[in-house]
Amino acid sequence: MNELLLIVLAYLIGSIPTSVWVSRHFFDIDIRDYGSGNAGATNVYRVLGPKWGTFVMAIDMLKGIIAVKLALLLPNYLDYETPLQTLQLGLGLSAILGHIFPIWAEFRGGKGIATLFGIVLGISPWTALSCVGVFLLVLYFTRFVSLSSILASIAFPVFILVIFNVDNPTYRVFAIAVALMVLLTHQKNIGRLLKGSESKVPILKHRDRRRQRRREASSQ
Questions:
Q1: What's the pLDDT band for 206 if we cut at 50, 70, 90?
Q2: Which of 14, 128, 147, 211 sits most deeply, having the most CB atoms within 10 A of its CB?
Q3: Is the four-CA dihedral 72, 73, 75, 80 of positive or negative sign?
Q4: Number of DSSP helices (H) and strands (E) in the chain, helices first
Q5: Domain boundaries defined on the chain
Q6: How many CB atoms lie within 10 A of CB 80?
Q7: CA triplet 182, 122, 58: central angle to 5 degrees?
Q8: Other C-beta atoms within 10 Å of 141: how many?
Q9: 55, 65, 64: which is closest to 99 by C-alpha?
Q10: What would the pLDDT profile of 82-113 be if each residue is shown by its tens digit?
């Protein structure tokens, strides 16, 4: 019963619609009516600017961290690593479901990437940092947040199954399920990437201008 209560609590924490509340309270709009229509940090970054995008991302990550740390409220799990980790994964999945289908926002939420990162960060920080490295590397070269998220999520089970070789079978299944979930929730983004119509985030503008000047100079 205690576990069930924590799972419900994790869902409610994940349901906190950070982007929706920020857009409504500070800008009198619903972020889901603008940009990509997604209630995630990336859309907030595009529509409301980097300050609010970063804030929403940080809070959404914190939701994942808090969700998995709820397991520490059950002392009988603390001395057993595998059962503790399995419970944390269950709590994390509940938080992700809350983020994607938030009870506080008409069940129309985001894609759960920031919350997912918070979950992995709360359970295995080195794996999370490795995935961040993949994300930032892809983002640097492409400026596609969606592609960066997809490739980082695919790298996640590679890190769990191969590089770090985690023994917990539940964690191994979780890692594979996460990659499949991200692919499923990014179907529209994948379509736009294939069509060449996916939006890029406005970063590295100086680099792009230098490249443009080089191309213009070489063509003269």
A1: low
A2: 14
A3: negative
A4: 11, 0
A5: 1-111, 124-220
A6: 11
A7: 70
A8: 11
A9: 64
A10: 899 999 999 999 999 999 999 999 999 998 88
